[in-house]
Design brief:
Strand order of the largest sheet: 1-2-4-3
CATH topology of one domain: NADH Oxidase
Order of helices and strands: HHEHHEHHEHEH
Helix content: 40-55%
Largest sheet: 4 strands, antiparallel
Distance between the termini: 46 Å
Length: about 220
């Protein structure tokens, strides 16, 4: 398998969310996904618990069912975002911020329509010890899963695969769990569409200046 000669800094600054540029027609070898997941398993987890599980979905009917949940949630999300953008004080449509929001909205709408078509869906899950208590701190739980999911995305990027961090399907988490046959003590954390990407490569994204968000010693 091809591994791109990316430096650590290049890898970290060019792993972007890929939506419109996902190649929906080119198959992704399962062995390549396994390779990325094997690297993801090196991520840290609380007390080295390694309670993660990975749903790798390639069956067309199952992908379509999960994709339908994602589409329904995306449509509701975009409706809310449209209302927010029309509210007083929202960025002007022709401003740089407004244009960036529109690009993200358009690419999100595209992925919402095509989540069921991506070659591979990867859902990162984690075991929940004991009773799930609403309102309790969940930092330790998700801190034992999300670094591994991000490692999977970095490994995919270095192997010429595009991914996107998505959670909108979790509005229908119980329905997704029923489709996938998940036991009650396993919760879903993120849905990662995985495909080869079209185009050449990626560049770092614009971000707020560090000095606006870094606080030394106190706020």
């Amino acid at each position: 398998m091809t591994v791109l000669p990316l430096s650590p800094d290049e890898l970290l600054t060019t792993t972007r969310s890929v939506r419109k540029r996902l190649d929906l027609d080119r198959p992704v070898p399962l062995e390549l996904v396994r390779e990325c997941l094997d690297l993801a398993l090196q991520a840290p987890s609380g007390s080295n618990s390694q309670g993660w599980h990975w749903l790798v979905i390639t069956d067309p009917d199952t992908k379509a069912a999960i994709g339908d949940l994602y589409r329904r949630s995306t449509e509701k999300y975009l409706e809310i975002r449209s209302q927010q953008m029309a509210a007083p004080g929202a960025p002007a449509a022709d401003s740089p911020e407004g244009q960036a929001i529109r690009r993200i909205r358009d690419s999100s709408a595209y992925l919402g329509q095509h989540m069921g078509d991506v070659p591979v869906q990867v859902i990162a899950c984690i075991e929940v010890p004991g009773e799930w208590k609403a309102g309790a701190s969940q930092t330790g739980l998700w801190g034992s899963l999300l670094p591994a999911a991000w490692s999977y995305m970095l490994a995919a990027r270095s192997r010429e695969l595009g991914t996107a961090w998505t959670t909108l399907h979790l509005a229908y988490e119980k329905e997704a769990a029923a489709i996938l046959g998940l036991p009650d003590h396993v919760r879903q954390g993120v849905l990662i569409p995985t495909a080869y990407y079209t185009g050449e490569t990626f560049r770092p994204a614009p971000r707020r200046p560090l000095d606006e968000v870094m606080h030394l010693n106190h706020w």
